[in-house]
Every structure is written in structure tokens, then in C-alpha cells.
Amino acid sequence: MGFEIGKEKKRVVVIGGGIAGSLICYTLQFHADVVLIDPKEYFEIPWASLRAMVEPSFAKRSVINHSEYLTNARVITSTAINITDGEVLTEDGQQISYDYLVVSTGHKDSFPKTRAERLRQYQQESERIESAHSILIVGGGPTGVELASEIAVDFPGKKVKLVHRGSRLLEFVGHKASKKALDWLTKMGVEVILDQSVDLSSAEDGIYQTSRGETIAADCHFVCIGSPIGSSWLKETFLKDNLDSQGKLVVDENLRVKGHNNIFVIGDITNIPEMKQGYLAQQHALVAAKNLKLLMDGGKESKMATYKPGVAMAIISLGRREAVAQFPCFTMIGCLPGSIKSKDLFVGKTRKQLGLKPGPA
Ligand SMILES: *[C@@H]1O[C@H](CO)[C@@H](O)[C@H](O)[C@H]1NC(C)=O
Ligand SMILES: *[C@@H]1O[C@H](CO)[C@@H](O)[C@H](O)[C@H]1NC(C)=O
What we know:
Elements: E1 11-15, H1 19-28, E2 33-38, E3 42-44, H2 49-54, H3 59-62, E4 63-65, H4 66-69, E5 74-77, E6 80-83, E7 87-90, E8 95-97, E9 100-103, H5 115-131, E10 134-138, H6 142-154, E11 159-163, H7 175-187, E12 191-193, E13 198-204, E14 207-210, E15 215-217, E16 220-223, E17 263-265, H8 278-296, E18 314-318, E19 322-326, E20 331-334, H9 335-341, H10 347-353
The site of one 2-acetamido-2-deoxy-beta-D-glucopyranose (NAG) has 5 residues, from loops.
């Protein structure tokens, strides 16, 4: 920073290194003194994780050390536990001051700390799938449907059962897309059980009880239920009054917290009324980065960019070639939507956005 005589860079602290947090750090690292606080040392492309469970080497490209793309930022491997007007407090006892703060703690997941441990986890999960004859998947949202599809395509001999508590799969998209996904899975030999849940605590010797008293035998199970919003820690902070009833942070059209003109919020933790999708979280990051650059350069607040909620669009991949897609006016299934997402799952594209080569590290 020695080149810029007389002009101190502003400190931007980003809490949470998911899809939104990693991109905003990357975008701002040469414009500000960027500090990323994340409990893990890496960023992971979330929608690639189901492929990595059947093909663990896939994770070598989709799990990326923060240090690889953050060549000019500081990474603190810890969890933020409190924030005040000008400081963030971390679990390991550090107090980090900020000029601007970005909150992007998305969902509360528990991932291992290092990339090597995460890759090992994928290896173990794929071995679990390979050695099982029958597999139970709990949860019929996008994660459960994509995992069932990956297994059905890569291991056609395995018995896969998917139990979902709701009356249809993929409730976040329309009925037509749900039906198409259900028909596709059924055709591929996956048994889908709707309107039931599984009591995992009482499972014994591979026998599981459903809420209607049915029994399911399976060699292993995977829980694919969405994790809660990562905001419980904010209830103890001065942002507690900015949380809505679902625990999301209420943002204005410039992606700032009301009443705090140096705090931005991006990603799934925002209360923006739209589907929670990774590509939208990336858009949040780009809008907030633009606004931060403007403010740091002394621009007018009135010139800030606004974020408009994204249209209802989603692609749920069904194995390596096919997908079901919902666009604003229609849904479709098969190889055409599959050709957009399913082969590479946007991994090369996402790596490129972080300035990395599409290939493995
Ligand atoms: C990622 O970081 C770890 C340190 O935790 C290091 O040992 C490893 O070599 C790095 N891997 C890559 C691909 O950069
Ligand atoms: C967080 O900081 C606030 C001061 O801003 C303080 O009142 C509160 O007790 C702290 N909470 C925790 C859990 O340390």
C-alpha cells in the first residue's frame, strides 16, 4: 500500500466466505484493506457438492483455498461472535476494526476447517455410496433431488429411496417442474415417498421408521435438509433489531442495513424477496462492491447502485447430462437445460470469476 502516499485505504471487513463473501473480497482486494473472517480456510462452490459426493476428484476444482484467489487480502480463520459500531470480535479473541462491514454468513453449516479435510470427507462419502446397496435420502429439496439423481445416473444398480416431508419435490419452484423431477426420478428407479418424514434418532441396524409407521431398510442415509440461516449470533449484537421474523437481515435497495450506512449485507442472509440462488448471491456481491468503491472514493450516496430482486429462475441438475429448469414463463426437462448446467456445474465459470484457471489446482 506504499504506492498511495497520503491516501490510506479503508478497511473492509467481510464476515462469511461463501459464494457472496468470497466474490466481494476478490472484487475489492486491490481497492481496500480487505479482511475476510471465515471459520474455514476455503471457499466451496456449493452447487458442485453433490457431484463431488459421487466423484470426489471433482471437489479438487470446487473447493478452493481462500489464499488462492485472495492474493491481496487478509484471511482470519475464526468465527465472528460480536460486532460493535467499529469492530468485529472473533471467537479466537481478536478485535478487528472496520470502516465498512459486509455481513454474508448465509447458512449455518458445519464444515471442516481445511481443504484437505473437506476433500477427505468427500472421499469418505463417495466410498459410503459405492459400498452401499441401498441408500436413503432424507429431504426432497434441490440438494436431495440432485444427490438422488447423481447416484441414479452414476450407480444405476443401487436402490435409492428419497423421503420428503412435503407434498411435492422442489417446493421452491412451480408444480410443473416438481412433477417433471418426480417423473424423471421414478423413471430412473428412485422410489420417492412424499408427505412423510424419517425419525433418524430411532434408526437401528439400517432400519428406519417413517412418520406413517412404514419401515425402510437402507445401508446408509444422507440428510439433505436445508440448514438454518446463519444469523443467530446477530441476536446478541447491535443489529438484532434489523433481523426479521425469519432471522434474515433487512436490507435497503442499496444492500445496506437500515440506519447503518457503513454496513452491507449480501447473500442468503438478506431478506430480499427472491429465490435463494447462488448466482443471485453473486449479483448482490457485485452491487455491494460497486457501492463500496463509490463510497470509498468519496462518491455521493445518491449515486449508489440499487439491487432489483431476481426473476424466478432455477436449474436443478439431474445427473451429468440432464436437468429440470424453471424459467420465468416455462419449465423444461432433459438435455437442453442439462447442457447449460449439468456437465461442469458452472465450476469453470465460477473459478474464472475469482481469477483462477478453470482446471484443477
Ligand atoms: C491449501 O491450504 C493448505 C493449508 O491449509 C495447504 O497445505 C494446501 O497446499 C493448499 N492447497 C492449495 C491447492 O492451494
Ligand atoms: C456484544 O457487544 C455489545 C456492545 O455492542 C454488548 O452489549 C454485548 O453484551 C456483546 N455481546 C456478547 C455476546 O458479547
